[in-house]
Inverse folding.
């Protein structure tokens, strides 16, 4: 029994070392929901039952490798559709489509899928399909934009106003994806048309986007950037 335990421990260690050889995968995250994330309680309550059933997560890798395969410069996106609010942590995961970059090798696409399953503990959809498509991620002083073929396009910008609104505006959810630091941004425009999920989804003007970092060397994880920090002298967090 002790020998078996030692062998299993050694195998686990070997897999972990292989997964993060060359540095832990790291980069930027966009997580778009079909409900408000930072709002008043009245708004959140009105959306809690019928809203939030769609979620799109986008990872832009700026460095690191998985299972010995370099991921820097690649993107990975996951679209999920559920019968429940996917902004809630214990919601049913529903079905998913994984978008992989056409500008990648077969080994890189396999590594991306393996990283997704290993790093995102909540990713347990009942059905998973995938597409290999052209992907583009852009970051500017004004915000972020992403596209995946003809199926997905997203533009997110910083919140323009830092004033407290009516109905007790506050942060009601946290990212489903693993992050080291995050904040909430505005969905300037998003369009999703995915036949594999029979889903057509477009939105704009909602504070429904998490913008964050993942895989960074920081103390702790999942830090929310406060309004005071967001509205500080730099006017820029990421």
């Amino acid at each position: 029994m002790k020998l078996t335990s030692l062998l299993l421990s050694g195998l686990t260690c070997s897999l972990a070392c292989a997964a993060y050889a060359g540095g832990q995968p790291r980069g930027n995250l966009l997580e778009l929901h079909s409900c408000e994330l930072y709002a008043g309680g009245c708004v959140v309550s009105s959306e809690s039952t019928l809203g939030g059933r769609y979620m799109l997560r986008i990872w832009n890798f700026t460095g690191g490798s998985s299972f010995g395969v370099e991921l820097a410069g690649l993107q990975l996106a996951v679209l999920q559709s559920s019968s429940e609010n996917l902004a809630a942590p214990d919601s049913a995961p529903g079905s998913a489509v994984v978008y992989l970059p056409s500008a990648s090798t077969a080994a890189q696409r396999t590594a991306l899928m393996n990283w997704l399953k290993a790093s995102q503990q909540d990713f347990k959809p009942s059905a998973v399909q995938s597409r290999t498509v052209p992907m583009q991620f852009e970051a500017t002083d004004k915000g972020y934009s992403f596209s995946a073929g003809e199926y997905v396009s997203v533009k997110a910008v910083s919140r323009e106003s830092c004033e407290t609104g009516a109905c007790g505006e506050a942060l009601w959810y946290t990212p489903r994806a693993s992050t080291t630091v995050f904040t909430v941004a505005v969905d300037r425009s998003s369009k999703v048309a995915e036949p594999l999920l029979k889903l057509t989804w477009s939105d704009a003007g909602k504070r429904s986007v998490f913008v964050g970092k993942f895989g960074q060397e920081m103390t702790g994880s999942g830090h929310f950037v406060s309004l005071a920090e967001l509205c500080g002298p730099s006017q820029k967090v990421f």
About this structure: Confidence is low (pLDDT under 50) at residues 1-21, 161-165, 230-238. The helical segments are 2-19, 41-47, 106-119, 227-230.
